[in-house]
Amino acid sequence: MKEELIDIIEPYVPEKELLSNLTEETTLIDDLQINSANIVDIVLDVEEQYDIVIDDDSIVKMNTIGSALEVITEKINEK
Amino acid sequence: MNKSKRVVITGIGVIAPNAVGIEEFSKALYDQKSGITFNEEQKELNFGSAIGGTPNIPPSYKEGRMPPLLNRMLDNDGVVYGILAGTDAWIDAGLSIDKDHLDIDSGIIFGAGALSMAPFIGPKLEHINVGNVRKLGSKTIVQSMNSGAGAFLNGIIGFGNRVMSNSSACSTGTEALVLGYEHIQQGRAKRMLCGSSEASGKYIWGAFDAMRVLCRDSNDNPTFGSRPMSSTSSGFVPGAGGGALVIETLEEAEKRGARIYAEILGGEVNSGGQRDGGTMTIPNSQAVQKCITSAIDQSGVNPSDIDLISGHLTSTMADPIEIRNWVEALDLNKENLPYINATKSLIGHCIAAAGSIELVGCILQMRDSFIHGTLNSDELHPDILETVPREKIPVKTIEKNVDIIAKANFGFGDVNSCVILKKWEN
Asked: pTM score, two decimals?
């Protein structure tokens, strides 16, 4: 799933070198320099990929690779 | 006039129904290639007019020019046409794009008519109506605002001067050029990117179809639909696309060794106030003539020096009236009238993008020394034949040095714009 998530966020990362050496702690906005306006777009892409719905409170938690994966897993399990 | 007040055109870009890019466009004009096609969607939706002109952009064209994320996310074609035409013009002018540099001497004025009525908006409105607002994502509003194309071009090019969007219906493109020209003449910028764009599709074109102003008699013969100045004109054919021109002070152009296409000698934007015969959709003739004579007066040229009138000429009943207005404004003997052509015969009426696309067409005719023939002008309206010699409205393209062009567009709202261009001799 980590690979899939990286594929989803890749287009939004301005410099592709930032995608090397990703860890669970890598932050989307600071480390990967993803424009904060694009977070909603990433969430839409994730929802479509896994056929889940991510509520606003959960979106707020998705600030690192690790926490994003946790939220996605949680929503898949809730289905 | 000193060189910081003289304004020249140094770059052009175009996305048109019959061509993508300036070289293809020049050839399409020369060959009188029509970009009008039959559209099944319009027929299925019970439009009276089932034809229109939509640019055909190869994916590779976009990939080479738009940043990948934008290419992926932008689904409003009106915005995309603007971005492509604008960046093409900038590069054609020999200017570089530097993502770290803010250019305080350069600005942009980029207009649109109904940017948010592009086809992309349909599904978005549906999402809202069924309570699914989140589906709009982050790119809906920035592609809907009328300043959208200009805003994206700003991100790509980095303008530090004014970033503006104008909107004056069919007059938008030529108005953008005049406004940019005046801004530079005021000494407030050295360079302006001036253009406009408009999307195609059922929403915008449907709104015109409902007014019964579109051509309904050529669904079986699409390329015959747009026939400006014809005795059988029955309505305009809608089109879409984008056009852009880089203009700058002569001083700046010479300083950086730019290739100069033409000089803007003068321009005017005025209104008929929907008085004295003018309405929302029909121009006040006196005001039209005043716009033309004002532009000519400012330019300092003699009406007899004008080689070509690139008219607004939409393939409606307004065409003979427009011709009469030109003839009266120029006040010349019949044999001294300039050539007249109507680019809309090939590309239809691209609404807010019309002026910009047609202006690029004017520059290309200057550059390549030809006057494109007006398609479907074999049978001219009798009123026109009374005042203009037949040979001045060529049916077929003629090769000729074109030195001075008068270009005008007249828009819904009873608004007019006119500009006088002179070919630059190096």
From this structure: 0.96
